[in-house]
Amino acid sequence: MDNTITAILLGILEGLTEFLPVSSTGHLILAQAFFGYDPEQWRQFNIVIQLGAILAVVVSYWSLFWRMGTGFLTGQPEALRFVRNIFLGFVPAAIIGLLAKDAIDVMLGSPMVVAIALVLGGIAILVLEKTIPAREDTGVAALSWKVCMAIGLAQCLAMIPGTSRSASSILGALAMGVGRKTAAEFSFFLAVPTMLGAATVKIFDEPALLRGEALISWTEIGLGFLAAFLTALLVIRLFVAYVSKHGFSPFAWYRIVLGTGAIAWLWLA
User: Fold this and answer.
1) What is the pLDDT of residues 85-112, one digit of tens each?
2) To the nearest 10°, the Cα dihedral for 198, 201, 204, 209?
3) Is the pLDDT at 11 greater than 90, yes or no?
4) Which is nearest to 180 in space by CA: 188, 79, 64, 161?
5) What is the DSSP secondary structure assignment for residue 1, as one 8-state letter?
6) Are 18 and 53 in contact (CB under 8 A)?
7) What is the pTM of this model?
């Protein structure tokens, strides 16, 4: 497949899956296995296009971030709680991610780990959807520090490829009694420092990127970045509206079907 087409398709795939509870990393790993392109050649590309998805969150919630940022500087109570909650949700992933980095890198090379995690995560979503009633949405700033720490710990499950950072944080929030809309938005907001931190660590592990060099052309990286950004913009807006009314079960069934199919394909290949 032509590199330009591959770059655009992977960018769209990243934008579609990053904020849905279906695992963007898992989809990229499975795409590598199914289409047979060299993952080493596209490793740097995958790092950069995640930044496009991060930018989509910032743009989508720009007015909120601006209000909370200026409110934080002036000591406004709601803004102080908002920033505190995002920070507390981010800390566990920052600590555990650095400590477990080598183990995570090993698992990133296993499509079978991704496939199994997709199925188990889908089952977990269905169980929580059936057993936990829908709760009132209070907003991120209203969450207690204990709830935010618990969600941050739950997010760490996403270090297993295929689990999904979004699914882990959303499921953790639902288990702690957070409303669906608030759970989804907290997952979006938590993605900014978490993904930015992870991308920064990966970039410093890639000396070529720091020198402005890449195995894939910068035109292709730019196209992938733009595709991820535009797709994620659309997904963020539609996802919150959808789950507020319908819940997360359709995404669970998608994970189970995809994961089961991937296990069968990998087993027979």
Assistant:
1) 999 999 998 888 777 666 666 555 678 8
2) -10
3) yes
4) 188
5) -
6) yes
7) 0.86
Query: Interior CA angle at 43 toward 33 and 200, to 5°?
Result: 140
Token pair for 22: 């279906």
Query: Cα separations (Å) of 97 from 196, 198, 255, 262?
Result: 13, 8, 24, 27
CA end-to-end distance (rounded Å), the chain: 21
Residue 158 contacts residue 117 (beta carbons within 8 Å): no
Q: How far apart are CA 267 and CA 269, in angstroms?
A: 6
In one-letter notation, the amino acid at residue 218 is W
Q: Amino acid letter at 256?
A: I
Say if residues 196 and 54 touch (Cβ distance below 8 Å). Answer: yes
Cβ-Cβ contacts under 8 Å for 261 (sequence gap 6 or more) = none
% the chain with pLDDT above 90: 46
- pLDDT for 9 beyond 80: yes
pLDDT digits (tens, 9 = 90+) for 240-269: 888 878 888 999 999 999 999 999 988 886
Quick check: 125 and 259 in contact, CB under 8 A?
A: no
Alpha helix positions (H), the chain: 3-17, 24-35, 43-60, 62-73, 77-99, 101-107, 111-131, 145-155, 165-175, 180-204, 207-210, 218-246, 249-268
Average of pLDDT values for 64-72? 95
